[in-house]
Amino acid sequence: MFNSPLEQFQILPLLSFGVNLFDLSITNAMLTTCIGLAFFLFIFYCLFSYKLNCFPTRWQLVLESLYISTAGLIWDSVGPKGQKYFPFLFVIFSFILISNVSGLVPYSFTVTSHLIQTMVLALTVFIGVMIICGSTHGFHMLSLFLPGGTSMVLAFLLVPIEIVSYIFKPLSLAVRLFANMMAGHTLLKVIAGFAWAMMGSGGLLLIAHIVPLGVLVILFGLELAVALIQAYVFTILSCIYINDAIALH
Fold first, then answer.
1. Which residues are CB-contacts of 243 (< 8 A; sequence separation ≥ 6)?
2. PROSITE patterns per the record (predicted)?
3. CB-based burial label for 156 (10 Å; 0-12, 13-18, 19+)
4. Which residues is 22 bridged to in the sheet?
5. What is the pLDDT of residues 49-78, one digit of tens each?
6. Do 162 and 146 contact (CB within 8 A), yes or no?
7. Could you tell me the maximum CA-CA distance found in the chain, to the nearest angstrom?
8. What is the pLDDT of residue 174?
9. How far apart are CA 17 and CA 26, in angstroms?
10. Phi and psi (nearest 5°) for 22?
């Protein structure tokens, strides 16, 4: 995997089979997704099997921190009306966080570095927001595309613009996560390949390869911060979209 920094994003079939025109192969992306979900469910199962206590363990502290962070985001962005959407947003936040962080493990696969995966997550949020808006306001939800106090002359110009900007919300949500994860992992692979090439050259370059390795350690810490921030950003934007659907902003 030293030929190209983009090879790490290839979806490879681990077990190939299909039915007629349907490809049901098990790929590395599918395996990584299932492992992430299984890890998330396993932690909850262990905690509730051994019961929560007043003197929390390390895993209980981690889950309580995730719980408090997500609940705080919803309360600050949506308010009391958004608390019923907590389970959905908590699962979204936890899944993205686990996928981002697990992708930093060597020889693993970063699910969120593929646009199709992030687009599925974004469309899930977007469709949910439209259902919330439609069930809450009915046909009055169309007022989202016409700002208050707009004249009829400007309405013909503003309505198409508002519709296009509303449709592009899930695209921007998906591209933001995909681009950040893909760019960061590509940069890490380029620096690691550069350090490996210097080490293999021998001589003074064997000693000098410590410099790119030091840069790699710093970038790894930065990429870990990006993984956490992107999960936070995706969740808080989802909260804002839900708030817009409830309040018709």
1. 77, 78, 79, 82, 249
2. ATPASE_A
3. exposed
4. 19
5. 666 666 667 777 777 788 888 888 888 888
6. yes
7. 75
8. 92
9. 8
10. -95, 125
Judged by average pLDDT, the poorest of 3-7, 17-21, 103-107 is 3-7
Tokens of 24: 């049901």
Look-up of token digits 């600050």: 76
CA distances to 6, 156, 164 from 144, in Å: 41, 14, 12
How many contiguous H segments (helices) and E segments (strands) does the chain have? 7, 4
- Report residue 218 as tokens: 């710093």
pLDDT digits (tens, 9 = 90+) for 164-181: 888 888 899 999 999 998
Which of 20, 17, 42 has the alpha carbon at shortest distance from 30? 17
3-state secondary structure of 120: helix
The two three-digit tokens of residue 122, written as one number = 């974004």
- 150: number of Cβ within 10 Å: 13
Instruction: Specify the length of the chain in residues.
Output: 249
Structure tokens at 161: 């613009």
Q: 18-50 pLDDT, tens per residue?
A: 777 777 778 888 888 888 888 778 777 766 666
**pLDDT surpasses 70 at 162:** yes
- Please list, residue by residue across 90-114, b when 16 or more beta carbons sit within 10 angstroms of its beta carbon and e when fewer do: bebbbbbbbbbbbbbeeeebbbbbb
Strand-pair category, 13-15 with 18-19: unpaired
